[in-house]
């Protein structure tokens, strides 16, 4: 089921590598084409990629869908471990198993909203499709992007071409010629771009401490906040329960529940596990047990 409760249709098959382009030392842009047409994919949904004829690793790995057009799908990945390092060696014409769209994606956003996308590391990947959708409306899209150094900040031109307002933050204070570079935490930039007069929504993807810091700021300003989690997964389909996270559960007494959402205290009755692959990867930050 998707957010609207409709039965979801998952495409499963082989994708052929059209391009596997090295962007930086560890980052790659993978372009895959499939036979036939992919079902509609929403911003924040993901794809599982698996190396065919491999037992190590046997399982697929989840990646945000960066961009999709007809039967062509793009993923931006960081070569960090077993699967992604092998993937980095693959060439045009080779194939991968894939299944998509998976997960819930970001919830719909009212028009004329300031959408502040907060990304850390490779966390910008689910936001391009979101920006593609909302720059067409009266919404104002801002990307706050934090990386270790300016060299690691990738794909910013894709966002700029859409008209997204981009602010870079780097750990070492290095700067990008076009986008500058604030020396410090990317979350420090939230209060700099937030305009209280504009309805605002904060969306985040990146390392957990960054998500938590962004959520604390959203809570301080009383703003809606969604976070996309990068929990490791096995099936991606809701079967194995390998991807659970602790969430606050809705109680029958709604008022009581609302109070508990904003309280730091979580008792045993108010939480349960949720599967990141089907209830997420995008969660209302107020519902997660941080
Ligand atoms: C919804 C979702 C979307 C995602 N989107 C993206 C995306 O767009 N781009 C992207 O790059 N990633 C994305 N990820 C993360 C991606 O799935 C992981 O990077 C990928 O699974 C790594 O697989 P791997 O086999 O290469 O690494 P693994 O071998 O499974 O290792 C995973 C992590 O453990 C570390 N590790 C491995 N071996 C050891 C060891 N012996 N000791 C200590 N640490 C170790 C690795 O450095 C790595 O950080 C996403 C994850 C989710 C859940
Ligand atoms: S990865 Fe199997 S249930 Fe989520």
Topology:
Blueprint (H helix, E strand, L loop, with lengths): L10 E12 L4 E8 L11 E5 L10 E4 L2 E3 L2 E7 L3 H6 L7 E8 L11 E7 L6 H8 L5 E8 L8 H7 L2 E6 L11 E2 L4 H6 L6 E6 L2 H13 L4 E4 L15 E5 L5 H9 L8 E5 L6 E3 L6
The protein binds flavin-adenine dinucleotide (FAD) and FE2/S2 (inorganic) cluster (FES).
Could you walk me through the main structural features you see in this protein, from its secondary elements to its overall organization?
With 290 residues, this protein is of the alpha/beta class. The chain folds into 3 domains: 92 residues, Elongation Factor Tu (Ef-tu), domain 3, CATH 2.40.30; 115 residues, Nucleotide-binding domain of ferredoxin-NADP reductase (FNR) module (Rossmann fold, 3-Layer(aba) Sandwich), CATH 3.40.50; 60 residues, no CATH class. It has 6 helices and 16 strands. The longest helix has 13 residues. The mean pLDDT is 91. Bound molecules: flavin-adenine dinucleotide and FE2/S2 (inorganic) cluster (FES). FE2/S2 (inorganic) cluster binds next to loops.
